[in-house]
Structures are given as C-alpha cells and as structure tokens.
Amino acid sequence: MAESRFAFIFAPELRERLQWFIKLRWLAVAGLVAASLVGPRIGMQSVWPSLFLVALFVAAYNLIFFNVFRIAEEHGQPYGNLRSCAIRQMVMDLLSLVVTVHFSGGLQSPLLPVFAFHMAIGTIMIATRIMYVLAAATSVGLLGLYMAEGKGLLAVHPVDPTRGMCGRACDLNLVALTVALFGIVYLTDSVTSRFKKRNIELYRTTGKLQERTTELQCLLDEIAELEQRKSHYMRISAHQLRSPLGTVQTTLSVLAKGYVDPASERGRRLLAGAIERVDGLLAIVNDLLELAKIREGRGRAPWSRAINVNQLLADIMDALEPLAAERNIELVPDFDGVAILDWGIPPDLVHAFENLVQNAIKYSYRGGAVTVRLRVNDTAVTVQVLDRGIGIPAAFRDQVLLEFVRAPNAKRHAPEGTGLGLAIVREVFEAHGGGVAVSSEEGAGSTFAVELPLHYTPPEARRLLQQGNEDGYRPHTAPAGTASE
Amino acid sequence: MDERKTVLLIDDDEVFVDAVSAVLETRYRISTAGNGTEGLARVHEAAPDLIVLDVMMDHLSEGFDVARTLRTDPATAAIPIIMLTGVDQVYNVRMEVDESWVPCDRYLEKPVSPEELLAHVAELIGE
After folding, report:
1. Which domains does chain A have, with CATH numbers?
2. pTM of this structure
3. Most buried residue, A54, A109, A275, A439, by most Cβ within 10 Å?
4. ipTM of the predicted structure?
C-alpha cells in the first residue's frame, strides 16, 4: 500500500497532530468534569460521579501518553511508533466515550455525535482500514451496551428519568449512528486520500527534481573543470609562443636600431636565429591546430575499415630506414600475429606510429637499435616501440605525454621539437579507443606501449552505420607516410 | 687589458644571448653561459660586475636557484643581478614579484628592449 511505503512523508504531520490531541484531550477532561457537576442540577443524576471518574481515567491515560510520547520523542520516532500510538489513543478514547454514553443516556445520549468526530479525525490520522475496524467495533460496542441495558444487565441512565427509555427511537439511533460512522470514515477517506496521493506525488517529484539538480550540478562542475583546463592549456600555449616571439622581437630590434649591421656576419647570424625561432613558432602553431582537429574528432581522413596494423608498421619502418641508417641505428621488426583493426583513420595512425619510431631513433645513441614489437590477442593489439637511448628522467616520465612537456635531456639531445608530438600521438590512439603508456629509465632507454582494441567502432562510424550509409567511407588505399595535408 | 666592466649573460636561448650581447658589447665585456651550472662556474672564472640571468632554463626556477646560490656565497653575494623572465602568470610564479621577493636587483620581463636593458645595467654598475 502506497501510504505505508511513503509513511515517512506523513510522519511529521502525524507527530504534530498527536501532540495537538494530547492537548485537546485535557479539554475533554475538563468537559467531562463540568458535565459531571452540571448534570445533576438539570436532572441527570447518573453523571455524578460516573463522568467524573471517566474524566479521571481519561486524564490518567492522557498523562501516560504525554510522557510516553515525550520520552519517545527524545529518541526520534519512526512512523510506525507514531501510528500505533495514535491507534492506542483512539481505542482508549472510544472506550471512554462508550462508557460516557452509557452514563449520559445510552442511545439517547447527547454525546453520540462525538463518535462521528472521532471517526473523521481517526481516518485523517490513522489508516482507513483500521478506522473501518474501529467503526465496526464501536457499533458492536454500542449494540452490546444497548442490549445489555435492554436486558437489564446494565443499569439504564435516561437523559430525562421522568420520561424513561426511548424505545423505537433508540433502535433507529443505533442504526443511523452505525451508518453515520461508516459513512464518515468513507467520506473522510475519499477526501484525504486525494491529498495523501498528491503528497506522495509531490514527494516523488521533489525527489526526481533533486536528483536532476544533483546531476546538473555535477555536469556544471565538469564543464567548469573543463573550462579551467582549457584556459590553462591556452595560457601554456600562449606562453610557449611568447618566449620565441620575445627572442625574435629582441633580435629584430637589435638589428633595426643599428646595434648590429644586418649585412654583417653577426647580423646574418641573428637573422638566421630569428628565422629559426619563427620556424619553431610555425611548428608549434601547426601542431596546436593538428591537436585541436583530432580533439574535435576530425582526423586527416574519414574512418576506414579493416586496417592492417602490420602493413602500416612495415611501411613506416621502410620510410624511416634512411633516417635510422644515417644515425647507424638498426630498426628491428618483431611481429607476432596479424592485427586488423575494424575501424581506423590510416593517416592518423601512420602519423602517430611514425612519431613514436622517429622519436625512438632521434633519442637513441649512434649504433643503437629500435625494436617495433607487435602482439595480438582476440581483442587487442599491442605495439611496443623500444629504444636503448637517452631515456626519460623519472620526474618527467608521467608527463611526457602532456602538451609542451620536454625533459631537459631531450632538449639537449634534440633542441628542435614543439613538445606537442607525444600529445598528438596520445590523442590519435585515444580516438581509436586505445591508449599509450611509457616506461623508461634515464640513460637506458624508453618503451612506448600502444594498445588498440581490434573491434572498436568510433562514434562517427556508428552514426553512419545507423543511417545505413556505410559506403560513405572510402576503403583505405592511401599508402603509409602520406600524413601531411 | 680591457678596462671595461664585465657582464655575464646566463640564458639557454642562444639567439637571445647573441642579440643581447650585441647591445651590451657596445659598453661592456660580455661573458655567456647556457645554463645554471655553467653560469655558476663562469661567475668564478670571469668575476663579472653584473649578471643577467634567465629564470626558466632546464628547470622552471633554475634562475632563482642560481641567484640564491650566488647570494648565499660571500664571494658573489655583492654582484648585482638582473633577472629576466618569460614566465608570466602561466605558472603563477609572477604574482606581484618584485626585487624584495626574488634574490635580485632588477626583475625584468621578456621581451626586453635593448635600451631598457642597457639603462638598467648602467644604473647598477655605471658605464
């Protein structure tokens, strides 16, 4: 039943009402005392001291309820406790009321309508089903009382002793009261259940709203973090451009202001230096553009199917053979198995692998060897590019894949370089659903390990596949090394 | 014997060093070094009257380290230092950096104009 599952929603309300009822009951006690005193004066001798005793009884249990409630309140009350407390109070009240009715005229009693009041309140506070049971119990109780009085088992206390009992009118009173009790429970329920349902709906909606708000907040936080990272990245990029620009400016102004004759040997040297810096700047800008393109999901070419990684690596090694030979470095292929990627952007993959092998050659000592090792399992291909070169200092190992990070020994070994090559490599492999990891020891060499899933479907391809537009992809025909655009 | 005062340039950007040398050479004898370690060695060889020091070389704060080393050595503590930096707010190093915070006499930001540099050098050691 929905009501009990969401009972905790109603707990605060019920708690408040219970407190209110304990206060209200003191009024009932006062009323009973007053009735017991006034009754005999208007001819109802039966109410003294009976109603006074009932008043004492009500006062006694009210005091008990008050204290029990207060003690329980200190420990925090679950809804179940509150409800059984309400039921107990209702049963006691009805019992007291039946006794009061007996002493104030039986089914002639002017207090009969008070039952209706109790039914309505009970239906609001307690479950409807329980109130039907209590209504039935009350009716049976009154019937029992009526029969006991009729059969002389209990003394009769008519309102007006001079007129005696009511006879037929009392039979009808009992019937009418029974109908009224059930009717009131029913009507009250039909009104309050709607409110209760709305309450539950409101609670559910509020819960959902809070969930959404939390989700939104998380998203906002993510966006803020992204924004911050972007801004940081932009500042670092700007700084990387600013340094060489500053040198170019100083150099040119030294020449322009006549400190050095541009035509002199030194002048030409300074101009050559400035050009070198400008070349470096252009390289950085190109790499930044490249990186931005890959991040935006735009490769050098459309996604193609069935990319043969072995073929790709073999082509790259062929292309780089002259560079290796020039440095007296041996390129060693170590392929085990054949790796075919479901999807890939061949020029991007060529660029990334080429970059790794080129780096391995660049940072190797003369006469060294660079191994390209390929291993395949059912789901992924691993390509390791191993060199025995200068290696990466421990402090930089985790950072070399980030933008603009170049270890000092790398700068000394090969001064040119934008510091963006490995960032581009990382982006390319991540765009293919894989990644790249570095292990290295300074002075002993480095290993760049690329892992690519064989069955990765990029979001772009998935979209087109859904549109049934698979033909939109040109099959891979471009030879390796046609990376430039 | 050259009577001119000696300025030591410590900077890893050789093009920049070449350009700045060309300007300072008009009045001073120039000695150069490409990194902090080399720079410290050169200080003892060349006994410069002033040092122009780049902050960011191999390490982010290499210039700061060099300056601190020089300032704690009684033999070199008195040599005026002009710190040059390309570091701006990027690494949050700049803040409101001034000479009281950085162990140097002048803190200049790159790019620096030849006249400006000459003026600062002249102010610290004279012609």
Report:
1. 2-214 (no CATH), 301-471 (3.30.565.10)
2. 0.62
3. A54
4. 0.85
